[in-house]
Amino acid sequence: MTGGHEQQVRQQFGAAAAAYVTSAAHAGGEDLQRLVAWGRSRRPGRVLDVATGGGHTALAFAEFSTRVVGFDVTEPMLIAARRFLDGRGVGNIALTAGTVEALPFRDEAFPLVTCRTAAHHFANPAAAVREIARVLTPGGSFLVQDILGHDDPELAAFVTEVERRRDPSHVRAYREREWKAMLKGAGLTVIEQAIIRKSRRWDDWTSRMRMTPEAKRALDAFVHAAPGAHRSAFEFTLTATGVESFADRLILLRADKD
Length: 258
What we know:
By secondary structure, this protein is α/β, with parallel strands linked by helices. The chain has one domain (3-153, 168-200, 249-257): Rossmann fold (3-Layer(aba) Sandwich). The protein contains 12 helices and 8 strands. It has helices at residues 3-15, 17-21, 24-27, 30-42, 56-62, 75-87, 125-135, 153-166, 176-185, 202-207, 213-225, 228-233, and strands spanning 46-50, 67-72, 93-97, 110-116, 136-147, 188-201, 237-238, 243-257.
């Protein structure tokens, strides 16, 4: 991440740390189950969870791994995650702060790396993927999940504006072919993939980022004023003056180091 963007991420997520620990959307779901199934089949001894947030993915992988390292740029998030993990009595998860574009680990340190619901915040995702590939052992697996970018430029611009109004640290979601190009460029080969739909409850989704009432009303009005085709593409359900829910697609990939 660039310095300015990294600071923006820290500000956004430092203030929202507690909300991410208690977020049901981050604590579980079909996407986490799929990543866990892929990871369990690899039988890793050590796992690195990049952008660990509240620690939910690290916790899931700690059930079948000897050691998990949760890594995040936001120290208040790591403090909240530590409290959460300690409360669960988990003793095989270490937490480390830093930037994903310069991971503080030796080459070939981990047979498995995870990254869930985070890459849309990366200022330079290709550099992040190269760093992840560097710390993977030969034959190791990178398991990534994130919002799937839309191929239609107008729809992509619409949902990116929605995301940025809710969270200014959002950069953008990457399309399937962009992900595959980044992975291939880092010496990783896609072995398994899936695309799943995830519904978002609007009030939960917006409140987690501590939007002001004024900003929330403006975002609601922006969605109401959008073309119907834009709203339909993301399954927006509207109330008289606000929004009830919407849905997006998640891309999940397992890519192995050549």
